[in-house]
Specification:
Layout: H1 19-35, E1 39-40, E2 46-48, H2 49-56, H3 61-66, E3 68-71, E4 78-81, H4 86-95, E5 104-113, E6 125-134, H5 139-156, E7 161-167, H6 171-187, H7 194-199, H8 204-207, H9 216-220, H10 231-247, E8 252-253, E9 265-273, E10 281-287, H11 291-294, E11 302-308, H12 309-318, E12 330-334, H13 337-352, E13 357-359, H14 366-375, E14 380-384, H15 386-391, E15 393-398, E16 406-409, H16 413-418
Parallel strand pairs: 1-5, 7-8, 12-13, 12-14
Antiparallel strand pairs: 2-4, 3-4, 5-6, 6-11, 7-9, 9-10, 10-11, 14-15, 15-16
The structure holds adenosine-5'-triphosphate and magnesium ion.
């Protein structure tokens, strides 16, 4: 026998046993987004590499070392499996001119790919739900995003998820801050690791995002951006805070929060939990007012966020959440030649009436079929034996709790299940 083939490292199967949890999450998310008037967008999983280099930034973890890129076999085009959803979403909005006469509230859900070291809460294929609002300038939209995520945690029954916010200011403010940071890190060059040294002049803000424990003290003592912030960004940030307070959403300002992607400006935020160990950020986002223009569209302000589905599901499990089990309403048992002929039609009749039905397949004795009916979790067994088949009837046997078996004409079958 040849060696079995395994899934690629860091890429997981979603097995049937996990499906109820995923489906509960996805259903909740769809309802939640409908409640805020967001529309779905789906973009291809493969995009041209250049899209991500241009938007996420050349000197970032994602672009430097995490992308799955390959060359198109025929025309040599450089392609990449999307590592995140914002760039693709903005690309589609620009390409189809969706901002032509109205701003857009959009969402997406799907797999993302990053070549990271797999560990709990960190995979090479993972899933995100993302929300992007394009064409909205004011802090009211930043507030909407934060308030809506707070509602989602409530809908999911999640506790211990805390909000951290920060502002990155305008491009000019960041340029000024950048210089101060470079000067500071240059004074401590001996503590910088390889990544930091490489980024010192290209992208020093990234150094603040380091996960290297040996550099934490240095980063902690680094100058903060507060003094460089421009008036417009400060007002935006203060207005946002006032809205969060009015909405009763608690937050903590974290001046170290810079986010791992280059396209952010002004507001950035993360929702963090202490219940998942090192991989505690379950949702992250912010404003990216220059990205639409950078990708070739007419300038338009925008903001958005993305959440990590696997991390949120792990958090749900940590709350001992048990998703509602999907059990069929009826299991159709049939024994005898005539009954076998009728069974398919009886099951269809049940579905016509809005019931879910599992049709027994593969023959076998009445006893063995009833065992399967029981094991399926169905509420009723709908039984067709020779007698029933001759009479155009079926027996309905409640499988859970009390209630006695009744025999009904096929035309009345639905009533038999309604009790
Ligand atoms: P981290 O700092 O954990 O690497 P990030 O800043 O790279 O996160 P984002 O690009 O902001 O992550 O993605 C948004 C969310 O997607 C994260 O907060 C996290 O919940 C989730 N996420 C990111 N990378 C992974 C991954 N490799 N596996 C699972 N979930 C992930
Ligand atoms: Mg990352």
């Amino acid at each position: 026998m040849s060696k079995t083939i395994q899934a690629v490292r860091g890429m997981n199967d979603m097995l049937p046993i996990d499906a109820p949890l995923w489906e509960f999450f996805e259903d909740t998310v769809r309802d939640w987004l409908r409640g805020y008037g967001y529309q779905q967008i789906r973009t291809p999983i493969v995009e041209s590499t250049d899209l991500f280099v241009r938007s996420i930034g050349e000197v970032t973890d994602i672009v430097e070392k995490e992308m799955y890129s390959f060359e198109d076999r025929l025309n040599g085009e450089q392609l990449t499996l999307r590592p995140e959803g914002t760039a693709s979403c903005v690309r589609a909005v620009v390409q189809h001119n969706l901002l032509y006469n109205a701003p857009q509230r959009l969402w997406y859900m799907g797999p993302m790919f990053r070549h990271e070291r797999p560990q709990k809460g960190r995979y090479r294929q993972f899933h995100q739900v993302g929300v992007e609002s394009l064409g909205f300038e004011g802090p009211d939209m930043d507030a909407e995003h934060i308030v809506m995520t707070a509602r989602l945690w409530k809908l999911l029954g999640l506790q211990d998820v805390a909000l951290e916010i920060n502002t990155l200011g305008s491009a000019a403010a960041r340029a000024q801050y950048r210089n101060r940071l470079i000067a500071y890190f240059e004074q401590h060059a001996e503590v910088l690791d390889e990544d930091a040294k490489r980024r010192l002049h290209s992208n020093p803000l990234r150094i603040l995002d380091t996960k290297n424990p040996a550099m934490q003290a240095l980063v902690e003592a680094a100058p903060r951006m507060t003094n460089d912030l421009d008036e417009v960004s400060l007002q935006h940030f203060e207005a946002l805070q006032a809205m969060l307070k009015a909405a009763g959403v608690a937050y903590r300002i974290n001046t170290r929060l810079v986010r791992g992607l280059d396209y952010y400006n002004a507001t950035v935020f993360e929702w963090v939990t202490t219940r998942l160990g090192a991989q505690g950020t379950v949702c992250a986002g912010g404003r990216y007012d220059s990205l639409v223009e950078q990708i070739g569209g007419k300038p338009a302000p925008a903001c958005g966020f993305a959440m990590g589905v696997e991390r949120l599901l792990a958090l749900l499990q940590d709350h001992a959440f048990a998703p509602p089990l999907a059990v069929p309403d009826a299991y159709v048992v049939h024994v005898g030649e005539l009954a076998d002929k009728q069974a398919l039609g009886v099951a269809e009749r049940l579905r016509d009436a809005g019931f879910s039905a599992l049709l027994h397949c593969g023959g076998g004795s009445f006893k063995s079929q009833m065992k399967k009916a029981d094991a399926s979790g169905a509420r009723f067994a709908v039984i067709i034996g020779d007698d029933e088949a001759q009479a155009g009837e079926a027996s309905v046997k409640p499988l859970r709790g009390e209630g006695k078996q009744v025999r009904v004409a096929l035309a009345q079958l639905a009533d038999g299940l309604r009790g």
